[in-house]
Design goal:
This protein is α/β, with parallel strands linked by helices and 331 residues long. The chain has a domain of 222 residues: Aldolase class I (TIM Barrel, Alpha-Beta Barrel). Helix content is 33%, strand content 17%. It has eleven helices and twelve strands. A twelve-stranded mixed sheet has the order 7-8-9-6-5-4-3-2-1-10-11-12. α3 packs parallel to α4 and α4 runs parallel beside α6. The two termini are 34 Å apart. The structure holds S-adenosylmethionine (SAM) and iron/sulfur cluster. Iron/sulfur cluster binds next to α11.
């Protein structure tokens, strides 16, 4: 085992092999925990990296050791050509696994095309199974459209299908309907702690342990090992359900030291941490003519910086703001 791998085993230095690409800041929803009621001013067309520029960056990232790529947004499926972009990324190298985070509204239309284009897995953000609460959380969404997207993803054979639920105090903090869904359908539900990005930190926050305790009251909880590449969650099954239930606790269970992520925003800023506002202006480099070699050097430099900082970017007690909205960074 190499020295690097040995450190990984001890959890000291994770291998940074996961890239989140936000392909747009635009969205067809206005979730209350993600953006203010008035929305967020959209970036202009020239500010957004083209698919060719993103492909160049991803190619360099793959050379720097990235093995998994997640497409996100805003809502990635509202950007024209997103399916072809996934096909483009699938052509980079067979080892690169491509996944998508979406609110699911457009999956009924695109799920089978996405599968055929090389998408392997999908995360659907769905915070409630109650139509009225769904409308309140998303401000404008129609639950039936999201559920049709979920059905289409399962039918298309995307595997695994995970559901992300951001838990908001007094709004959708009863986990049992989702536990029932994980029992009935081949889906993996992950409850995510609300991160107070632009709002009063105490307003909606519910610790993951509270959700777990509520589930434990409903039945027998059996911890299961976190499947490889499923991110920083703890997983369990309730009453022997088919699907798993996960808890992602970015606030109560600080997981920066084990973070393996790199991000690029739609406007071409590379971030090594969700909470670090020191984004690297990759777009300027690309538009000045940087090729794969130069980009690889830049990425490796930033990854080294992240390794050295090793979790020092933890959310400050004053809040988790970084001057950006989640819809811009991609979650
Ligand atoms: N529109 C897509 C979606 O909703 O899945 C992709 C982009 S969205 C910004 C990515 C993820 O960030 C979603 O799962 C969303 O629930 C999560 N997210 C947004 N704001 C959050 C917050 N304040 N706290 C925790 N998660 C948040
Ligand atoms: Fe849009 Fe996703 Fe943010 Fe909801 S969480 S507003 S769907 S970007």
């Amino acid at each position: 085992m190499s020295e690097e791998q040995e450190k990984d085993e001890q959890g000291a230095v994770p291998t940074i092999d996961y890239l989140r690409i936000s392909i747009t800041d635009r969205c067809n929803l206005r979730c209350i925990y993600c953006m203010p009621a008035e929305g967020v001013k959209s970036l202009s067309h020239q500010d957004i990296l083209t698919y060719e520029e993103l492909e160049l960056f991803t190619r360099a990232a793959a050379e720097a050791g990235i093995r998994r790529v997640r497409i996100t947004g805003g809502e990635p499926l509202v950007r024209k050509g997103s399916v072809d972009f996934i096909r483009m990324l699938s052509g980079i190298e067979p080892k690169l696994k491509i996944s998508l985070t979406t609110n699911g509204l457009l999956l009924a239309r695109y799920a089978s095309e996405l599968k055929e284009a090389g998408l392997s897995r999908v995360n659907i953000s769905l915070d409630t199974l109650d139509p009225e609460v769904y409308r309140n959380i998303t401000r404008i969404g129609d639950l039936s459209q999201a559920l049709a997207g979920l059905d289409a993803a399962i039918e298309a054979g995307l595997e695994p299908v995970k559901i992300n639920v951001v838990v908001l105090k007094g709004v959708n903090d009863d986990p049992l309907p989702f536990a029932e869904l994980a029992r009935e359908r081949p889906v993996h539900v992950r409850f995510i702690e609300y991160m107070p990005y632009f709002d009063d930190p105490g307003k909606w926050y519910v610790p993951g342990e509270v959700i777990k305790a509520r589930l434990a009251e409903a039945g027998k909880i059996e911890e299961v090992e976190s499947p490889e590449g499923w991110g920083p969650a703890t997983y369990f099954k309730l009453n022997g359900s088919a699907g798993t239930i996960g808890l992602i606790s970015p606030v109560s269970c600080h997981f920066c030291p084990s973070c393996n992520r790199l991000r690029i925003t739609a406007d071409g800023r590379m971030r090594t941490c969700l909470f670090d506002s020191n984004a690297y202006p990759v777009k300027a480099e690309i538009r000045d003519g940087a090729g794969v070699e130069r980009l690889r050097e830049i990425i490796e430099g930033e990854l080294e910086r992240k390794r050295l900082e090793g979790g020092d970017n933890k959310p400050k007690a004053s809040g988790l703001r970084a001057g950006d909205h989640m819809s811009r960074i991609g979650g």
